[in-house]
Amino acid sequence: MSWKDRKKQFQKQVANFLDIPGDLMMDLPKVVLVGDVQVFIENHRGILGYTAEQVRISTTLGDLEITGLDLCLKNILPDEIMVEGRIRSIVFKD
């Protein structure tokens, strides 16, 4: 088991023991889908690309790729982004 894997496992155990949400303790992104029209992404690392059909966002788990129609960025804050449009897929890419 690598150092990185052991560190993640330890963080997960501490988060479970202290009853702390994983997204806070382990700096994980939080992705909330509202129907097929909105996506909220918390704990992001920045926008990598943006078109009306695709939005790519950097996260600690890799790039998050949102595809759909008429996509637009509504809120862009240091720790939260909201994407609106007709959401077709959400995929983490390594």
What's the quick description here?
With 94 residues, this protein is an alpha+beta fold.
Description of the structure:
The chain has helices spanning 3-18, 22-25; strands at 30-34, 38-42, 46-50, 54-59, 62-76, 80-93. It is an alpha+beta fold and 94 residues long. The chain has a single domain (28-93), classed as Immunoglobulin-like. The protein has a 6-stranded antiparallel β-sheet, with no helix packed on it. Strand 4 (54-59) and strand 5 form a beta hairpin. The chain is elongated. The two termini are 20 Å apart.
Which key terms come to mind for this protein?
94 residues; alpha+beta; Immunoglobulin-like; six-stranded antiparallel beta sheet; 2 helices
Topology:
Layout: H1 3-18, H2 22-25, E1 30-34, E2 38-42, E3 46-50, E4 54-59, E5 62-76, E6 80-93
Antiparallel strand pairs: 1-2, 2-6, 3-4, 4-5, 5-6
Q: What's the total count of β strands?
A: 6
Shape: elongated
Question: What is the chain-wise order of helices and strands?
Answer: HHEEEEEE
Tally of separate helices: 2
Biggest sheet strand order reads 1-2-6-5-4-3
Radius of gyration: 15 Å
Class from helix and strand fractions:
alpha+beta
- Give the total of domains: 1
Mean pLDDT: 86
What is the percent of helical residues? 10-25%
Gross CATH architecture: Sandwich
CATH class: Mainly Beta
What characterizes the major β-sheet?
A: 6 strands, antiparallel
End-to-end Cα distance, whole Å, is 20 Å
Poorly predicted runs are none
The CATH topology assignment is Immunoglobulin-like
Strand content: over 45%
